[in-house]
Design goal:
alpha+beta; Rieske Iron-sulfur Protein; 352 residues; 32% helix; elongated; 8 helices; five-stranded antiparallel sheet
Length: 352
């Protein structure tokens, strides 16, 4: 229903839309400006019952948004992380992810749809012409803007239509709770867990390839061997988390080639054990150059000198590789004499 279907006596008085119009081009105005077309009133401008229907529609959308937000929180709490459901045509997917995405999408869509429907059916849609003005704002302009703001607030009918206002405020208040609830997935602060690994005094160094404890005779000069702590099972559920902190690379140098005093003290007959985890972004280091005793991270080319405390000599890594203090037990096997004395891997915000 448009203004053309409504008797003229029911229509509001037309406003002047010819402001600034130039119907015929002349020397002063070389381009004709026909002005704005006649304004066509919406049915909501004429019929209060139609306006009420629009108000109820917008309020319904805001209410659905609130319910969807509550559903988001309920799904986050109630649905197990490992539960899956079959959704055609996607197949088997995570029930939690599907529920969270669906409810959050509905909540945001209904807020946007409600706001658009409100603006298109209830707010003023009169065309206005405003002449260009200087960049600086004059006192008169500021006063005009203030009056226009008050007029716009009045025309939005926010104060008059309490149901619409309250449901909108409820939807806008509840939807941010989805982000607050998601913070729960960040988990507790790591505390000191990042500072400790499975290494401890007496833990044997086990060859990653043979799964056998290592003896000094197993490490040849110039060779690179990878090791893990005794008792770490590759089939264990937490294997990846633990090996990411405890992986070792073992190199045997000539004792005379070791420049760092602490490195020499923490070694055994030239055998040094360093963390395999690069201190840049945590990539595993696997490239060793025998003549220079340098190891290279393949991800971003950070280079460490294993003969000088594994200090950084090239690349983006921020600090040297942590060294593990090792020795030999009564049975002749290499063992750790302590855990790493500093966190392995990339630097983090609470690093001491």
């Amino acid at each position: 229903m448009s203004s053309q279907d409504i008797p003229e006596e029911n229509l509001p008085a037309e406003q002047d839309t010819s402001h600034g119009a130039v119907g015929v081009a002349d020397e002063k105005h070389p381009f004709a400006d026909p002005g704005l077309p006649p304004h066509e009133y919406r049915v909501q401008d004429i019929d209060e019952r139609a306006a009420k229907r629009s108000e109820r529609t917008v309020s319904l959308l805001f209410t659905v948004s609130m319910l969807a937000t509550v559903g988001f929180i309920a799904a986050f709490v109630a649905i197990p992380v490992d539960k899956s459901v079959f959704i055609f045509p996607f197949g088997h997917i995570s029930a939690l992810n599907f529920a969270l995405g669906l409810t959050l999408g509905i909540a945001l869509f209904c807020i946007g749809a409600g706001a658009i429907h409100w603006a298109r059916t209830l707010m003023s849609d009169h065309e206005m012409v405003q002449e260009r003005h200087p960049v600086e704002a004059s006192p008169e302009l500021r006063a005009t803007i203030h009056e226009e703001f008050k007029q716009g607030a009045k025309e939005s009918q926010l104060g008059r239509r309490k149901l619409l206002r309250n449901t909108m405020l409820g939807a806008l208040t509840l939807v941010p709770l989805t982000g607050v609830v998601l913070l729960r997935d960040l988990g507790p602060l790591p505390g000191t867990k990042l500072r400790h690994t499975l290494w401890s005094k007496g833990k044997l160094l086990v060859n990653m390839n043979t799964d056998e404890p290592l003896r000094p005779s197993d490490i040849a000069v110039g060779s690179l061997t990878f090791a893990k702590p005794e008792g770490l099972d590759e089939h264990a559920e937490d294997f990846n988390n633990e090996i990411a902190k405890a992986a070792l690379m073992i190199v045997r140098l000539q004792p005379g080639d070791i420049k760092d005093k602490r490195e020499l003290e923490w070694s055994h007959e030239g055998i040094v054990a360093y963390s395999k985890i690069c201190t840049h972004v945590g990539c595993p280091i696997s490239l060793y150059e025998q003549q220079t005793h340098h190891v290279l991270c393949p991800c971003h080319q950070s280079t460490f000198d294993l003969s000088d405390g594994a200090r950084v000599i090239f690349g983006p890594a921020g600090h040297a590789l942590p060294q593990l203090r090792i020795g030999v037990n009564d049975e002749g096997y290499l063992e750790a004499l302590s855990d790493f004395e500093e966190p392995v891997g990339p630097a983090f915000w609470e690093r001491g």
